[in-house]
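Collaborator request, handled under Task 6.
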Amino acid sequence: MYSNDTIYKSFIQCLQEVSPEINPETSTIVYSPTVNAAAYTAVLQSHVRNRRFTTTNTPKPAIIITPTKESHVQAAVICAKKLGVQILTRSGGHDYNGRSYVSHEKHFILLDMYNLHNITVDITTETAVVQTGAQLGELYYRIWEKSMTHGFPAGVCPTVGVGGHVSGGGYGTMIRKYGLSVDHVIDARIVVADGRILDRRSMGEDLFWAIRGGGGASFGVVLSYTVKIVPVPEVNTVFRVTETVPRNVADLLYKWQSVAPTMDRDLFIRVILMPETVNGKMTVTATFIAHFMGDSSRLLKIMNKNFPELGLSKEDCLEVSWVESVFYWANLDYKSPAELLLDRHSDTVNFLIRKSDYVQSPISKFGWESILNKLQELGKCGLYLNPYGGIMEEIPADATPCPHRAGNLFKIQYSMNWTEDDPKLDEMYLYQTRVLYEFMTKFVSKNPRCSFLNYRDLDIGVMVGTGERGYNSGKVYGKKYFKDNFHRLVKVKTAVDPDNFFRTEQSIPVLPGVKNADAVLFSRI
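C-alpha cells returned to the collaborator:
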C-alpha cells in the first residue's frame, strides 16, 4: 500500500531516471509535506482561490511539482503514470470546486504550472504564444506593451490562469463581438499520457478540437496556447448604473433580456442582482455594468434607441482605453499603472460557491418579480446575468466543444461569497445557493439543463466507478456541459488516453469495453 513517503521516494527515483538534471537535494521544484513541509504548504496555499479548500480536512497532494521547463512536465507525467498515481494540473487555482488541486482519490500529485508563464506577442501576425501558467492580467499587459489597439477576449479577473480559463471555454466583455476565448486558439502544445509533446499538427484536429473547451486536463497537460489577438478601439466606454426600487428593477430586467442580446455587438451589459440592506430594509440592488467598444456619443445613441428605460446619461459614461476597461471591470482604479496586471496575487480570497444556468426564453415580469423576492428572502446569494447574442448566434455549436451558442439569451452565474471561517455557515450558504438554483429551474434551459464548464459545479454530477458505470455517470454532467459534443469528446478521450490516466471527478470518461482505441474516432456511439 502506498504512503506519501513511498510515493515521494519512488517519484524522485523515477524523475532522476527520466530527467537526470533534477537533483532532489538542490531542486526547488519538488515539494513534499514531510521533506520540505514549510515550502510545500506555502506553494499549495499560494494559489488556492477558494478558502473552502484550505481546511485541515481538505485532501492534500502527496507531492507538488512546479516545473520550470517543458521537460519537467514530461517527466512528471511519465513518473506519475508509472506509479499509477493520479496527477492534477493547476494554472491559476480558480477552479470553483478546487478540482485543479483537490481530489477524492487517496493519493495524488499536483502539477502546478505557475512557473511556466512566458508570453510572446507578435503584433505583425496578431498572435500570442501563452504558456498555461500565465494569468490573464499578464497576457493583457504583454499585449498592451506592444499595442494600445489590440486585446484578447477573455475574463475580467486578472489572476485567472490561462490554462483552465481557455481550455474550459473562456469569455469576457467582448463575447458578443468576438465570441469565446477558445474561438481564437490556433495552435497548442500538450503533454499526453506517454510523455510526448504534441502540437496541432502532430496531435491532429480531433484532439486539438477537444482541448479548446473540453477541459484540457481530461486529455493531457497543455503547455501553451497560440492565440489570435483582436483589434480594439482607442476609445472604449464603460458605465455602472444602479437601481434599487423593486418595481423598477423588474421592469428593467424584463426589457434588458430582450435588448441586451440583440443590440450592437460592440456593447456588453452585465446585470448583477445582489441582496443588500438599504435604509434598514432588505432589498435587491441591480447594477448594470457595461463595456462598449466605442465612444460615449455612439453608445448613447444606441442606448436611447434600444434601452431608454435605463436612463443612461453622458455623466454615467467613462471613456477609457481597452486596458483601462480591464481595470474598471476588475473593480480596480482604472487609472492604475498597467504593471499592476503583473501582480499575481492582487485578488482577495474568500469562501465561495458558484453555479450556472442558461436562459433561452424571456422571463415574464411576474417571473422577474418572483426571482427578486426569492433573492430577498434568501438574503445573500447573488446572480450575474451575462448577455449572449451577437457573433455567438453565428458560431456553430460544434465548432468547439462549447455548444452554448445560438438560442441563448443570457448566462447566469450564481454567486455566493462569505468571509467567516465557520463550517456551519458553509453549510448554510451552500444550502441557500442550492435552494435558489432549484427555484430557478422553471426559467432556464431544459433537457438538458445546461451548465458552463468554467463554472465547475460538482452538484450536477460526478464520475463514479469505471467501465460502463463510469461512462454513464460521466454522461450526466457531460451532457450538461457539452450537449451533443459530449459524444465526440468521449471518442477523443478513449483514443488518446484509453487508460483514463488524466482524470478528475468531472473529466471526460472513456468508452467502456473498447479494444481498439486507435479506431474509436471512426466509430459511432
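The cover message to the collaborator said: "The radius of gyration is 23 Å. The chain has a mean pLDDT of 95. Please let us know whether this matches your experimental observations."
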